[in-house]
Amino acid sequence: MGMSQQYNSHISRHYAAYRPPLHQMILNKLIPLNSHFKQGLDVGCGTGVSTLALTPYCERILAIDPSADMIAQTQAIKGVEYRVATAQECSLEEHKADVVTFAGSLFYAQSESLCIALKRLCQPDAKVLVYDFEVHLDALLQRFDIHTPPSEGGYDHQVNFDNHGIFAPLQQGQETLSIAVSHQQIAHVLLASESRYQLLRDAFHLSDPFQAVVERLITCEAPQTLTADIFYSCYTFSQR
After folding, report:
1. Statement: residue 19 has pLDDT above 60
2. Domain segments of the chain: what residues?
3. What's the rounded Cα separation, in Å, for the pair 15 and 10?
4. Which of 13, 33, 77, 200 has the fewest CB atoms within 10 Å, measured from its CB?
5. 68/163 Cα distance (integer angstroms)
6. Within 13 Å of residue 49, how many CA atoms lie on the same side as its CB?
């Protein structure tokens, strides 16, 4: 296994080990109680955390991600099929999906070809849900004497389909939430990013610094709370 593959394996493992339950909290805002969909499509599903959050609303879900490392960390869920693919490559039957989710994946996936693919894959009245969150980690990283720049790679948590004429917005929002967590869960969140993983690896001179990170958080009595900004939008296809 090459070095980059090894890091990807470590990162995806921490990503799969714990994610704050923000997916469920956001979907509860976007999907009315007792809503029911026959075929969901989760684009950029990662390790399947966003897929699991969608399962209470769907009979079946096709969850796709271009990363084989991420798909390898998914767990079997009844009614869910995982595939290594992009929306453009997706072989789902035409006009089959009645709900599509992009959980922190639209920034990477957005393109005109994506919009064309969605029109092919979705029913005319399908709901398209775009959501993301930004967990505030700077203060935690400072406990390791790590100071990060304001933006990581120009990533935009608020990217959506507002500028694409084929979509009509139904609902949009932005809020700040707080979640109680353990020090172990905080460590998994910190190590689930390639840049943070490398910074913490270098700080401790360990290939997988998880236990060292946990011990430091306990020693410095880091608060067992995560605060996050959430961003969400719900669209249907424009009838124009």
Report:
1. yes
2. 3-135+150-179+225-237
3. 9
4. 33
5. 31
6. 23
Widest CA span of the chain, in angstroms? 59
User: CATH classification of 3-135+150-179+225-237, choosing from 3.30.565.10, 3.40.50.720, 2.60.120.460, 3.40.50.150?
Assistant: 3.40.50.150
Q: What digits encode the pLDDT tens for the residues 156-189?
A: 999 999 988 899 999 999 999 999 999 999 999 9
Mean pLDDT of 105-113: 93
Phi then psi for 70, rounded to 5 degrees?
A: -65, -50
Closest to 195 in 3D by CA, of 32, 109, 203? 203
Hey, is 229 helix, strand or coil? Answer: strand
Strands 58-65 and 37-43: parallel
Cα 108-47-214 angle, rounded to 5 deg = 105
Buried b / exposed e along 169-208 (16+ C-beta atoms within 10 A): eeeeeeeebeeebebbbbbbbbbbbeebbebbbebbeeeb
pLDDT of 5 > 80? The answer is: no
What is the reported pTM?
0.82
Query: pLDDT digit string (tens) for 29-84?
Result: 999 888 999 999 999 999 899 999 999 999 999 999 999 989 998 999 999 999 99
Residue appearing with tokens 């039957």? 93
